[in-house]
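Entry 14. Ran structure prediction on the chain below.
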Amino acid sequence: DPAAMPKARKYLIFGVMAFGQFMALLDIQIVAASLNQVQSGLSAAPEEISWVQTGYLMAELVMIPLSAFLAQALSTRWLFTLSAALFTISSALCGIAWDIDSMVLFRVIQGFVGGAMVPTVFATGFVLFTGRERAAIPAILGAVAVLAPTLGPTVGGWLTDAAGWRWIFYINIV
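Output, structure tokens:
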């Protein structure tokens, strides 16, 4: 029962989920600044490298509406937990991708499971909070949705320069 939960626990749950949403949205743009390095590292043709971004976005767009059905079938808690775990695993797989085909496959998986984290955080926020706190949920998550893609190219470029392009994926493991 969300009403019986201590406020600190509600904020912790919401904060962890909002961070998951941040990472899923950050991954859309974190790769953008490093596509040339990924292309070189995987010996990919120019027409192939765009699928690294396109595959992620297409899979995410498929999952967002599907997550409503999955949340009812599994529960929001299990859907988010499963999505976060698979997002982490697929990020590690992207980091060890050996060619463009494996990278695109792993990015599609990453986008698909990451897409479930976005709507589940909204649903959980509206269930956990009432009144003024509930009214703040869209503003907080809206700020996350704007901040993550804005920081993505800068973080991606910095990580690629500092540690190599594979670290734009390994950062999600943390």
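Residues 44 and 100 are 6 Å apart (CA to CA). Will compare against last week's run tomorrow.
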